[in-house]
Each structure stands twice: as C-alpha cells, then as structure tokens.
TrEMBL record:
Organism annotation: Aegilops tauschii subsp. strangulata (Goatgrass)
Highest rank taxon of the organism: Eukaryota
Descriptive protein name: Cell division control protein 24 OB domain-containing protein
Span of domain Cell division control protein 24 OB: 17-144, 149-276
Pfam families: CDC24_OB1, CDC24_OB2
PANTHER family: NUCLEIC ACID-BINDING PROTEINS SUPERFAMILY
Amino acid sequence: MEPAAVTASASADGGAFLEFVDYAISVITSSGGDGSESPGAGPAPARPPWGWTVAQVLKSCRAYSSGVTAAILLSDLFQSWTEQRKSLTAKTKVEVTSLLNTRSKRRRLPRTVTIDSIHEKNFLSPKSVLEAVVIDVFVLPGTNIYMLTLGDMWSTSTIDLYLHRRYYNYIGQHCILKKGREVVLTGCCLRTAVVEGSGHARILPTEYMVILLDEEQDEDAMLLAAQFCTYSFSSMMEEKSRNDVVYSFYARIEKIETLEPFGCTERKQIVLVDNDDEKIKFILWGEQVSLANLFSVGSMLALDSPYISNFAHNNHEEPQELCLEYGSATQVYLVPIAQHEEQVGCNILVLLFSAVLLTKT
C-alpha cells in the first residue's frame, strides 16, 4: 500500500483507507496486547481509539516514503499501542501507589477482591469487599450523577463507580470524598459492558461504603475532634430527650458477633467501647450485615447520626438496653487499626485539634 494510494483513496471516498483502519483496530483488539495487561477497562482502553489509529497509520505512511505494506503498518500499530498501554498503566500504578502509601501498614480484609480480577471475570459478588483509593471524582456529562474512578494497590486497572446519593454530601457539603481518599465498599453489583452495552464495566451504586480517615492528617484529625468527641455513650443514656439530639460517636470496635436471627432477618452486632470505657451495641440488620465485612477488631469507628433503638437478645424477649442501628441518615467513617501502632483516643485528638488551630492562628 503506497502512501499516495492511501491518500488518494482517503480523499476520494475513503473506502479503502477506512476499511483498513477498522481492520487494524480489530486485529490489535483480538490480539489482546502483550499479555501483561488485564482485560476490560483499565488505565488504557483495550480497544485502540479510531482517531489514534488513523493518526498512527498516516504517521507510518509518512515515515516509509518509498512504500509500505499492510504488514508493516500493522506491526507499527501493534508496537505503538503496546507501548502506550504500558506507559499509561505504569503512570496509573505509580499514582495509585503514591496515594496508598499507608496501605502497607494495614492487613488486607478477608473478602477483598482486586479490580483486575473484576475485569478478568467480568463479575463482582455482592459479598465481596473492595479496598480502593479515589483516583477521580466527576459528573456524568448532561446529568447530575456523580462517578468515582477507583484504583487499588494490587491492580493495574481502574474502575468507575456510580456514587449512591447517600454519599453526595461527602462531596459538596463536607468535601471529604475527593482524590486520594481511601474507601472500602461492599454490596456491589457490576454493570457489565456485554449486558448493558456500555464501553466498559462499571459498579452500580451501593449503600455500603465506608470512608477511611487518618488521624495523622490534620484535616481528618480536626474532623474527628470537632464532630465525634462531643458525646459519650453515657451522655446519651442519661439524656431523656435523646431522640431530639443528633449524636456522633467515636469508639473502638471490641467485638464483631453474629446474633440469632430475628424472625427470618439476619443480625450482627458490633460491640463498641468509647473513651470512657462505656460499651454499646451497634446492630446491623438484613443486607446491612455485609457492612461488618468492612470492619476489624481494634479499629476506630466514627458514627454520625446513628438510629437509637432498644435491643432484644432474641425473638422471645422484650427490648431492653439501648443500642445503635444503621439508619437512613447514618454516616460511617473508619480509622483502621495499623499494625504495631497504638490507636489515638478522643483526649489526644482534642489536644491535636487544639494544636492545629494554634498553628493556623
């Protein structure tokens, strides 16, 4: 195929040129790259963009002024595409690793799956756990729907998540959910490209996402000290008009236990201990029990606006002691336990909060 012939064909009706471009794209796509990349959506799409392919073909035609064959063009295209995918993959991997520089201090949760494995299997179980970092937050064009691009430490791929409206305040009002923020989520379902006709797989909205906080970061320490260290469990128990108060608690997870089903409904309880060594049960019902897979004993849980109820041990007892539940307005933050490190209590957080304020005045 001579350069002049390609140009003439393109300028006439474009038939032969466009036909070759489509053929080249199909060949490169079916080849699957060099075997080092994960299939599905990732830092670079598995299918070369049409515009990129056209530009590369013209570039090769100009480079071989004495003439070029279809085999040479395909070889150049394949090599360029492989190098581009490697470059983009490496760039994304470096970015994710830098954003997850604290991940090595924590244990991986038991049900954790990787983004690469999701793309490979084109499947995601609702019981699986995804430990991820936010790479990007954006709005779908022409809508008011927020999307998160997520990456993880073990994958070269990324994946997009439709954000549940339960968490929209994290973006607009509190600005907590942003690039670099670590999250853990479960109860997820996959919107696959094959079934839905999209260009790549995405995760559908889930109610069960927990935002991770880091006490060593000024912004997170200030949030914890200002919002979650005002009330103790004892102050709630003593308050007669407790239903008129919006409570926020900060406590250590002491136990995670499975309870006897209430009727046909599954239950789990998280035993929490606050800074005054007072204990209370945080009860999860039905589908909520999957939240327990995101927690670990020893980690600190920050509960905003929990639903206050009365706890019954089994189906035959009347509700007795007070307990907390995951209500429609409840928001959960987690400060994961770090290996070989002590957790910081509310008293230290208050001192840290005061010190930060002094340095900023």
